[in-house]
Give the backbone structure.
Amino acid sequence: MLKSFFTFLLVCYSFFSYSQFALDTVKTKKGAIVLFSNNTWKYVLEESFDGILNGYINSRLNPDTTVVFPRDWNNDVCYSKDYTHLLSSMKDTIWICVNNEFDDKFCIPFNGAVTSRYGYRKGRYHQGIDIDVEVGDTIRAAWSGKVRYSKFNDGGFGNLVIIRHYNGLESYYAHLDQLLCAPNQEVKSGDVIGLGGNTGHSFGSHLHFELRFYDAPINPEEVIDFENHVCKDENLLVHKHLFTPGVKASDYGGGTKVPRSSTVTAPAKKYHKVRAGDTLSSIATKNNTTISQLCKLNGIRQSSVIQIGRSLRVR
């Protein structure tokens, strides 16, 4: 009885503390309707979304058809395939802008002490960072992006949120007590996505935080300074050494220096001049990107009318 009372208080606290968070998702034949706590709703159309939020990164990983790294969009599967063995044989180095133009800034998921780091732990491979939290603590999105997964995971993560970001990474937030976001929901850096907890294979409340690149885990400390709550560098150089099991943040320059015998390929801004007959779909296809990416780069909606002669940024 006492436990039920405290659960009720926690739900009330959550409801009044956050002006808007996702309560439920209603699936329809043409998309999904996300219901929010402030009595509003949003229609999410997913028919044309292919899962690619960063066309540049995808094109650099797939220069030909020998090895294909698909960006599957699946709301029910945690990660479809581990590409570590392929990524560990990369010859080139790919440049990623950690804090890109879509984000106001990086946000630490929770201001807590790191209790366990990435690497081997008691004979097992720990693929993320553990942050000390209390049940009910506010967990926030590290960067802007789109929620790919928000449900209970019976593989050990417990209540888990996965966000795919525009910088090519995915962030994992595990062992949550409550899920406060819905699949396919777009979130901004710093948005509340859940409450800290102790669900799944967890011995004491904490947040298990992972960063993955095309389903392969990398050390979050390559990117984030957890002590000072900032990104270590605006640039992340993705090379094969990042996917070495047990790699430490101090190895290979912490992801910001180029290993010897690697070639860095950085993107240049690219524009497309709109011609008669052009559509967002055709422009995206010609430039190996997505409609969602075009909208983000140019501050437009999918329903926007594009004027002939306008220059749209495609990269």
Q: What stands out?
A: The first strand starts at residue 22 and ends at 28. The chain has three domains: 2-44, 55-265, 271-313.
